[in-house]
Amino acid sequence: MYAQLVDTGVKRVKGLDEMSPEERNFQEKIDAEIKIEPKNWMPEAYRRTLIRQMSQHAHSEIVGMLPEKNWLTRAPNLKRKLQLLAKIQDEAGHGLYLYSAMETLGADRDEEVAKLHSGEVKYSSIFNYPTRSWADMGTVGWLVDGAAIVNQVVLQRTSYGPYSRAMIRICKEESFHQRQGYQILLHMMREGTEEQKAMVQDSINRFWWPALMMFGPHDGDSPNSAQSMQWKIKRMSNDDLRQRFIDQTIPQLELLGCTVPDPDLKWNEERGHYDFGEIDWSEFYSVLKGNGPCNRDRLRTRRNAIENGAWVREAARVHAEKHNKADVA
Amino acid sequence: MSDWTLFEVFVRSKHGLNHRHVGSVHAADAAMALENARELYTRRSEGVSIWVVPSAQITASSPDEKEPLFDPSDDKVYRHATFYDLPKEVGHM
Questions:
Q1: With CB atoms counted within 10 Å of each terminal CB, which end of chain A scores lower, N or C?
Q2: Would you call A37 and B63 a contact, using CB atoms and an 8 Å cutoff?
Q3: Mutate to test the interface with B, among A317, A318, A321, A325 (most CBs of B within 10 A)
């Protein structure tokens, strides 16, 4: 989940009979799977919640470039470097698709970015973990993008048209990310030295739990889920998405010949799913509050990027103005 | 970026097809909007041609007018080929 704990500002979900005619008409469209488009009437809380969810999602894509750029200049060869560059450019693109979709709701991009920088709006907890080895580029692609895909595939059917269309584009591109990540790991496990294999296992050990946290708190601790589900801006519960991710990931893990740091993980024949251990939620909330290993560093890097780029944006504006005048004259 | 213009982006995916709306970009001018649109929307040969139009220049019909604008064509079934029953002997027409 790239957007965690999105506040709807709604205390209790209304039934159809409690709604105003406009609200009822809106909810009936959603129930009938008719997409809501920018100029359609929508409840103010729906609009605000969507802006919050989409901006968080966009910020996650943008901040998500930082752990990867760490290895750009140290990729093991030119081929890997080009692949990583292409992936990072995609992440920037995904952020921009989402900002663009968010702006159709009347949100201002600069204001939303300022909220990220002030800490008012979050990005996914996962990007606050450091990427210590080259194997992390593989693990991030496989597990982090893999978890994102599980979430985003469902969001392709979200009720807001521009968001849904952005998700469809993003999903098409994400599968390249996950495959390139998995291939990095598979290559190291099959062709690598003992040291390189150990590097892969160490990387999975560090990223496994944080990747599971991406789906957010348990359903029972997710107070905004009911409203978001009614609006269909969330289509599956956190726990269901997490289970789906684990079920599809473990066979891939076994193919690598690696393990995850969870002694309770085992196939449950009766449920038809993997059982797994309890997530350390104190770590999740602590990272979300800003106390993960890299939170401050990530925000500082983003702020610097915007501030140091100010003169470029200004120069482009002045250049455009000068040419506009010349054209008129 | 607020002092940059918002442009809507249209991409023709293949020769012979229409341009289709794909999203928007911010840019200082139209030339920059084209470059940004190319980087953002055609990284995997999705297009052979791009249009950019300042968003403010687009006039859109309002959703409130949907019925008066589009309903009248619902009762003109005779505008469709399937309205005209012809005997089998005519064959494909």
A1: C
A2: yes
A3: A317
Taking contacts as CB-CB distances below 8 angstroms, the residues of chain A near B24 are 100, 103
**Per-residue pLDDT tens over the stretch A246-261:** 999 999 999 999 999 9
Write out the two tokens for A201: 């296992």
Is there a contact between A100 and B32 if contact means CB atoms under 8 Å apart? no
Please name the residue of chain A whose CA is at the shortest distance from the CA of residue B61: A39
| Phi–psi pair at A55, nearest 5 degrees | -70, -40
Q: How far apart are CA A144 and CA A135, in angstroms?
A: 13
Provide the residue type at A189 as one letter: M
Instruction: Kindly list the residues from chain A whose CB atom is less than 8 angstroms away from the CB atom of residue B63.
Output: 37, 39-41
Strand-pairing partners, residue A133, are: none
Angle subtended at Cα A193 by Cα A188 and Cα A195, rounded to the nearest 5 degrees: 95
**Which value does ipTM take for this structure?**
0.84
Cα B36 versus chain centre, distance: 20
Q: Which residues of A50-83 are buried (b: 16+ CB within 10 A; e: fewer)?
A: bbbbbbbbbbbbbbbbbbbeebeeebeeeebeeb
CA distance B71 to chain A (A): 18
Sort out which chain B residues have CB atoms less than 8 A from A86's CB and list them.
43
Of B2, B32, B43, the CB nearest to A316: B32
Domain boundaries, chain B: 5-84
Distance (Å, whole) CA A203 – CA A197: 10
Domain B5-84, CATH among 3.90.1150.10, 3.40.1190.10, 3.40.190.10, 3.10.20.520: 3.10.20.520
| Structure tokens, A83 | 């692949």
Give the whole-angstrom CA distance, residue A32 versus residue A30. Answer: 5
B88: contact with A, CB 8 A cutoff: no
Q: What is the pLDDT of residues A210-224, one digit of tens each?
A: 999 999 999 888 878
Whether the predicted model's global pTM rises above the 0.80 cut: yes
Which of A275, A219, A220 lies closest to A247, judged by CA?
A: A275
Q: What percent of chain B has pLDDT over 70?
A: 98
CB burial of residue A19 (10 Å; 0-12, 13-18, 19+): middle
CA distance A104 to A39: 9
